[in-house]
């Protein structure tokens, strides 16, 4: 087959590819799912044509034209993937740390509710064994301190246990967020009740001579896990405060929507904290490693989470204030919305005809 016949046979394919690339360039993100799939198919087909021409015809003009078409289509396809990747990076370097930094006052209050409840409960029951006996029977205390508390962490396979812990913790964070709709009352209750539970168990273990077991098992995963719960609680408290006192410059509805948006950003980021804490709880907490090493792993995980927020949060907050209130994370998401289209995979050129 000579070059002219080859061109005539495939001209319609190349012209359609040019048309789709032009549409994508003029109105990014406006291609339908069907058109996007067609763009990918024609890109693969034209790549195969280019490979065939280079091997069998070696016509410089045709090779140059097909190379330009393939390059233009690749720029459109890979450019979209690049925008999506930038938004993911922006979430972890701007969106999440910025939202957490903005919520520092609420985080401090959330920590006060949780740790204040845990400390007060622990001190009360530790200094009043009679009250502890009323809450948890002496027989049950012996079982918990003797083996049940420790057995809990190795009662199931690591994978199943990690999944259950992660799911439960994420549900707690979502409950804390939803609790904001009750003016923060439910969120505060979740924090106080969880703190109370920690305090009771801590006092129980101390009273029964198992303090080392308690701290050796609770700290490796608890450092990050409890911190995540506290931050999640702050989300609900901020949302609740928006319901109570939206401010003079915004309506109650606008305040709730804004805080809910920031809250969702935080909860999505906290999911990673909960996943890491879940794996530590399943793999490190019940392991045979020395207690100091297990606690050290938990401390490193918490330090990494804090360092991540401190490394990006204050700078993002300063940039937001310098931009007269413009949120760089919201700008990034808006850019994606304008440029977005259904995500596409990296295509591989098909084999030659």
From TrEMBL:
Signal peptide per UniProt: none
Domain of life of the source: Bacteria
Spans annotated as Disordered: 331-353
Protein's organism: Candidatus Neomicrothrix subdominans
Stretches with biased composition (Pro residues): 344-353
UniProt cross-references to InterPro entries, sorted A to Z: SpoIIM-like
Protein name: Stage II sporulation protein M
Keyword line: Membrane, Transmembrane, Transmembrane helix
TM stretches of this protein: 106-125, 174-198, 218-241, 262-280, 292-312
